């Protein structure tokens, strides 16, 4: 009991010069005891696992804990704070921090903790000869202390928590933050200051004055430790190399140790994974403090915590090593700039880790892929009128029963059985079907009966549309759902529309001529068209920069185009004129796409956000912000409730149209993503990137389920066949490849363990899924499309060698 009486309280505080106060989510610790109500009860062997503004813990040996004050950075979620060494004697910054904490404890009526800290502070003061009267601070120090105080006191402290006897801790004062998410053992809240993407605030975090000559030694020491650790831990801990390398380099540059930074870069940049080479090239150009201000890569890296997913065993090993070596410089970076997502269970293998890493901000946090996604299809509206017509038609043909049966099935199965994973029908408002839409659906059903059933033994034919002499530079292509029109966007700012059926393109007559037409006649829709204007090609002028995206509306009345001029334009295919210019993006708009139900459309561009629009609103309805680089491609889910975006930050995100939230983040590509497509049943997503790989994702579980290797250049286009049995991919390597989608998605491991830890097991060889490779002479494949009868249409511009 005498030992218990001697215990003191340990206080961990983070002081950052700038930025607004915020409450962070709870931080995960490693204490052996259970955490609850914002306090941590650590067992005798759980020392060092608590993260709190003020808490206490017994030493690892179960003996009497020594009094200590730890002034250290607050750890990112999933990482536990380790008390830093005693502050360097006499530093005014440390004295201001102590004063601020004392003042805060006094105002919060935490007398015991204040007394304990005062005794500790005096010890520190006496240890330094001639540093001034204890507790005295200069004017600037007092201001800083009161500023800190005013920010910290914004949150009311929790009650002083006293541990039960025998736990080896007593009288711990805890300042609890807002608890978000499920509480785990050893989790407590903490008060911290949020990052601001303001340049000066962002850069000030690098103002730590570590010994510049020691950086190489620190990094080499950690590298040696990781390389000598067991194989099962080595793969996981190797993920630390890249983010630590970048932050240590930036810290050296910011503190103007240019020669040390150059030497550090040259010595270690060769150790980084090959897929980070582009980022390292940008980094190597930052050699002076001035270069860092306003540099996007630098701000991305600083404002978004790099996420590492590591097993608890590997993390404990790393923590023990850094504590033993007292390697505070590296530990500070781990706490300040990394988010360590700890999971229980077996460490992942090198192959499993390599499949998932490579994005600009590391892997996705597991929490990011937990929310429910309604990936099922909406109930098809019942169209009763056409079935009578079908009967009449059927009588004239011998194949009547054969024709009618599948039709009844396809209508019945969609309308009577509600998909359990489908969103509520009225979750988002969708446009009502017009008569012309119903007629189109009937035509679609007729075509469906003649659809070829594809499979490994029955591959589709491919019809390739080559744009010859496209000196204007073909930059985008789209084909209508019924495969009657093709649109091309060009670098000379034009959009060109071709009819690929014998039916020519005609404009509506002039107003004077329209007034003469009998509006009651049955063929009024034919009469309003002007035969004099009939031609196979129409050119649409209006953009003032290259056109990078094009999309037809499902009813074929409109065409969208997005351009380098920052606008999205809506064109009428009745008059072939521009109806609206949507201005919201400030920079080039790389892609745009209509919803499968029309009315809504999405656009993505260089300003790193995707925007959701409605054709009758001149401002966006939703802004999807979260990517760290350009949004290169956008795609609507078949049920129109979600939008997928692929970005140059090497991630794919899925956004909920209803509330604008990001509900999935997929990492694994090693280059910017340029193509996306959903499977017809809405369950899966396929993505293609500059790394030449096609990745397959299970949307419901938020998991990667396949990797298709074969292309040697950027995958520009992806499309599933109408029944989802075959995936076609088109690339800049001048090939179209067909993959067996049924085989790729069968026997998926989507148990709870896989979902929780990301232990995905991809087949070693994707060649057995490859059904065919089709070369063009010298034409990169820009666009792919499956007709309603499962014929593949491909398009690209011939590029002479």
UniProtKB/TrEMBL annotation:
Start and stop residues of the WD repeats: 467-508, 540-575, 582-613, 624-665, 666-699, 708-740
UniProt xrefs under SUPFAM superfamilies: Taf5 N-terminal domain-like, WD40 repeat-like
Name under which the protein is recorded: Transcription initiation factor TFIID subunit 5
Organism of provenance: Lynx canadensis (Canada lynx)
Gene, per the UniProt record: TAF5
Biased segments, Gly residues type: 30-50
Main localization (coarse): nucleus
Subunit structure: Homodimer. Component of the TFIID basal transcription factor complex, composed of TATA-box-binding protein TBP, and a number of TBP-associated factors (TAFs), including TAF1, TAF2, TAF3, TAF4, TAF5, TAF6, TAF7, TAF8, TAF9, TAF10, TAF11, TAF12 and TAF13. The TFIID complex structure can be divided into 3 modules TFIID-A, TFIID-B, and TFIID-C. TAF5 forms the TFIID-A module together with TAF3 and TBP, and in TFIID-B with TAF8. Component of the TFTC-HAT complex, at least composed of TAF5L, TAF6L, TADA3L, SUPT3H/SPT3, TAF2, TAF4, TAF5, GCN5L2/GCN5, TAF10 and TRRAP.
Key words, A-Z: Nucleus, Repeat, Transcription, Transcription regulation, WD repeat
GO molecular function: RNA polymerase II general transcription initiation factor activity
Biased composition, class Basic and acidic residues, residue ranges: 408-419
Protein purpose: The TFIID basal transcription factor complex plays a major role in the initiation of RNA polymerase II (Pol II)-dependent transcription. TFIID recognizes and binds promoters with or without a TATA box via its subunit TBP, a TATA-box-binding protein, and promotes assembly of the pre-initiation complex (PIC). The TFIID complex consists of TBP and TBP-associated factors (TAFs), including TAF1, TAF2, TAF3, TAF4, TAF5, TAF6, TAF7, TAF8, TAF9, TAF10, TAF11, TAF12 and TAF13. The TFIID complex structure can be divided into 3 modules TFIID-A, TFIID-B, and TFIID-C.
UniProt xrefs under PROSITE patterns: LISH, WD_REPEATS_1, WD_REPEATS_2, WD_REPEATS_REGION
Entry's localization field: Nucleus
InterPro entries, alphabetized: LisH, TFIID_NTD2, TFIID_NTD2_sf, WD40/YVTN_repeat-like_dom_sf, WD40_PAC1, WD40_repeat_CS, WD40_repeat_dom_sf, WD40_rpt
Signal sequence interval, chain numbering: none
């Amino acid at each position: 009991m005498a030992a218990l009486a001697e215990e003191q309280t340990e206080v961990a505080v983070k002081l950052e010069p700038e930025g607004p106060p915020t409450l962070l989510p709870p931080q995960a610790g490693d204490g052996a005891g259970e955490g609850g109500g914002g306090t941590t009860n650590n067992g005798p062997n759980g020392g060092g696992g608590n993260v709190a503004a003020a808490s206490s813990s017994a030493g690892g040996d179960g003996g009497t804990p020594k009094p200590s004050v730890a002034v250290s950075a607050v750890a990112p979620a999933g990482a536990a704070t380790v008390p830093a060494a005693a502050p360097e004697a006499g530093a005014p910054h440390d004295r201001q921090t102590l004063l601020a904490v004392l003042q805060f404890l006094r105002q919060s009526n935490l007398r015991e903790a204040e007394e304990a800290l005062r005794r500790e502070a005096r010890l520190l003061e006496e240890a330094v000869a001639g540093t001034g009267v204890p507790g005295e601070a200069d004017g600037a120090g007092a201001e800083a202390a009161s500023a800190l105080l005013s920010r910290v006191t914004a949150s009311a402290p929790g009650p002083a928590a006293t541990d039960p006897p025998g736990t080896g801790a007593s009288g711990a004062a805890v300042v609890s933050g807002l608890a978000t998410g499920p509480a785990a053992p050893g989790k407590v809240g903490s008060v911290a200051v949020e990052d601001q993407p303001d340049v000066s605030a962002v850069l000030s975090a690098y103002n730590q004055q570590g010994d510049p000559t020691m950086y190489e030694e620190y990094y080499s020491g950690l590298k040696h430790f990781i390389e000598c650790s067991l194989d099962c831990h080595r793969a996981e801990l190797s993920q630390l190399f890249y983010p630590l390398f970048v932050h240590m380099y930036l810290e050296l540059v910011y503190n103007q140790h240019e020669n040390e930074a150059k030497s550090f870069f040259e010595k270690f940049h060769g150790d980084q994974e090959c897929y980070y080479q582009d980022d390292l090239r940008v980094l190597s150009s930052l050699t002076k403090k001035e270069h860092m201000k306003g540099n996007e890569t630098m701000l991305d890296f600083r404002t978004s915590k790099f996420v590492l997913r590591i097993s608890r065993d590997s993390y404990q090993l790393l923590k023990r090593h850094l504590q033993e070596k007292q390697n505070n410089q590296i530990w500070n970076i781990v706490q300040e700039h990394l988010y360590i997502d700890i999971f229980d269970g077996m460490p992942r293998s090198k192959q499993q880790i390599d499949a998932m890493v490579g994005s600009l901000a590391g892997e996705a946090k597991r929490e990011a892929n937990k929310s429910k996604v309604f990936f099922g299809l909406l109930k098809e509206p019942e169209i009763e009128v056409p079935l009578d017509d079908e009967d009449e038609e059927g009588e004239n043909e011998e194949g009547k029963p054969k024709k009618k049966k599948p039709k009844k099935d396809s209508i019945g199965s969609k309308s009577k059985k509600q998909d359990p994973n489908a969103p509520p029908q009225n979750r988002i408002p969708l446009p009502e079907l017009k008569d012309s839409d119903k007629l189109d659906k009937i035509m679609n059903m007729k075509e469906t009966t003649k659809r070829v059933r594809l499979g490994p033994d029955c591959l589709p034919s491919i019809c390739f549309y080559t744009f010859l002499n496209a000196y204007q530079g073909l930059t985008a292509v789209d084909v209508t759902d019924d495969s009657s029109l093709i649109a091309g966007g060009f670098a000379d700012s034009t959009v060109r529309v071709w009819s690929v059926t014998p039916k020519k393109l005609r404009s509506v007559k002039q107003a004077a001529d329209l007034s003469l037409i009998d509006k009651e006649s049955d063929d009024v829709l034919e009469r309003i068209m002007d035969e004099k204007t009939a031609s196979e090609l129409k050119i649409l002028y209006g953009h003032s920069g290259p056109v990078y995206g094009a999309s037809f509306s499902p009813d074929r009345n409109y065409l969208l185009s997005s351009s380098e001029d920052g606008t999205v334009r809506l064109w009428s295919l009745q008059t072939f004129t521009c109806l609206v210019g949507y201005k919201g993006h400030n920079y080039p708009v790389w892609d745009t796409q209509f919803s499968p139900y029309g009315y809504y459309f999405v656009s993505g561009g260089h300003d790193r956000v995707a925007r959701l629009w409605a054709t009758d609103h001149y401002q966006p309805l939703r802004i999807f912000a979260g990517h760290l680089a350009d949004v290169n491609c956008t795609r609507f889910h078949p049920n129109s409730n979600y939008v997928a975006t692929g970005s140059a930050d090497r991630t794919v995100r899925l956004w909920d149209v209803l509330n604008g939230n990001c509900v999935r983040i997929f990492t694994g590509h090693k280059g910017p993503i340029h193509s996306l497509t959903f499977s017809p049943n809405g369950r899966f997503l396929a993505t293609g990137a500059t790394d030449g790989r096609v990745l397959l994702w299970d949307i419901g579980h938020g998991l990667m389920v396949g990797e298709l290797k074969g292309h040697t250049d950027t995958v520009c286009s992806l499309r599933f066949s109408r029944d989802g049995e075959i995936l076609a991919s088109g690339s800049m390597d001048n090939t179209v490849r067909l993959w067996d989608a049924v085989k790729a998605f069968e026997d998926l491991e989507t148990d709870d363990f896989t979902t929780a830890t990301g232990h995905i097991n991809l087949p070693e060889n994707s060649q057995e899924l490859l059904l065919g490779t089709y070369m063009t002479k010298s034409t990169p494949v820009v666009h792919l499309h499956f007709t309603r009868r499962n014929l593949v249409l491909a398009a690209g511009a011939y590029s002479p060698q």
